[in-house]
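User: Reviewer 2 asked us to show a designed sequence for the structure in our supplementary figure. I'm pasting the structure tokens here. Could you produce the per-position amino acids so we can include them in the response letter?
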């Protein structure tokens, strides 16, 4: 009986691959109609899943292995609304994942934390990917042994909507490190643009445009502190704020890890015309030494305050 079950499963997998589909295992040339079938075919191995142009309500859960999810042509593979486990279009808990050239939009779930990517374990690299008009772009669990990198990507129209619960555009839990470079955050709909509990943070050459935001909070929130560097970014503080007091926070929920020597330098920040308040560029809730230097701050922005 067990042999018959295994044989039937293998025949079903082979038929699915041979029938063709938009999800191709590059190394084997196999094609699948469902993303989950392609992920299952990788198992605990390593592979690239190339995704054909199209709009998909599909989703997948990666339980093991190392998988790259790559658009055949950047920007043409769109995951629209579909979620697995009530979490995300991609739920990742394998050894590692690489996501490149994809678009995730309109991921909504009842608890308010629908995401394009939910990373629960392992390393993650995201390159040239758009997250738009949903609750979260990327949301992580805790994995202090792993790192997350985001490059040349966009987070647009994300946050606490439609019902005012959950959600930040990019929210990383207790990971070892987060690195964000050449990435744009814009049109927030609530919550923070970037919130990270990672022990080490790098945010470089990126932009945070809150001019079209609504009910937004901090641009960068390091709730438990972090070491690292925030440099060469641009920030625009909008008027429609839930909290306009601070743009970058250090340890507002308690200094549970070191922020000694965190460097915030060579950034440019401004407020939109008619912004009626004074705001603080960096607010620190820690007695440790945070280096804030050489930032170009517009009128109405105070450089630093210890909270």
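Assistant: Here is a per-position design you can include in the supplement:
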């Amino acid at each position: 009986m067990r042999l018959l079950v295994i044989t039937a499963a293998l025949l079903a997998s082979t038929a699915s691959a041979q029938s063709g589909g938009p999800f191709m295992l590059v190394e084997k040339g196999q094609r699948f109609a469902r993303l989950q079938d392609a992920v299952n075919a990788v198992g605990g191995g390593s592979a690239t899943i190339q995704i054909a142009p199209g709009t998909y309500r599909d989703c997948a859960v990666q339980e093991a292995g190392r998988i790259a999810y790559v658009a055949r042509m950047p920007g043409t593979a769109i995951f629209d609304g579909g979620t697995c486990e009530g979490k995300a279009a991609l739920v990742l808990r394998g050894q590692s994942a690489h996501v490149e050239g994809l678009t995730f939009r309109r991921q909504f779930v009842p608890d308010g934390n629908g995401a394009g990517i939910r990373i629960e374990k392992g390393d993650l690299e995201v390159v040239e990917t758009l997250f738009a008009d949903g609750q979260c772009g990327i949301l992580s669990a805790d994995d202090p042994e792993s790192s997350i990198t985001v490059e040349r990507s966009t987070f647009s129209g994300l946050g606490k909507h439609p019902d005012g619960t959950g959600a930040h555009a990019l929210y990383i839990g207790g990971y070892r490190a987060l690195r964000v470079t050449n990435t744009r955050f814009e049109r927030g709909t609530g919550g923070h643009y970037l919130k990270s509990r990672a022990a080490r943070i790098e945010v470089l050459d990126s932009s945070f445009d809150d001019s079209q935001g609504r009910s937004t909070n901090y641009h960068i929130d390091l709730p438990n502190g972090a070491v690292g560097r925030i440099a060469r970014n641009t920030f625009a503080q909008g008027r429609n704020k839930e909290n306009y007091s601070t743009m970058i926070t250090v340890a507002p929920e308690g200094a549970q890890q070191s922020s000694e020597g965190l460097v915030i330098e060579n950034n440019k920040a401004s407020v939109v015309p008619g912004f009626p308040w004074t705001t603080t560029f960096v607010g620190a809730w820690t007695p440790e030494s945070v280096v804030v230097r050489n930032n170009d701050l517009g009128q109405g922005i105070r450089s630093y305050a210890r909270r």
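For the response letter, you might also mention the following. Residues 59-306 form one domain. The CA atoms of residues 64 and 94 lie 4 Å apart.
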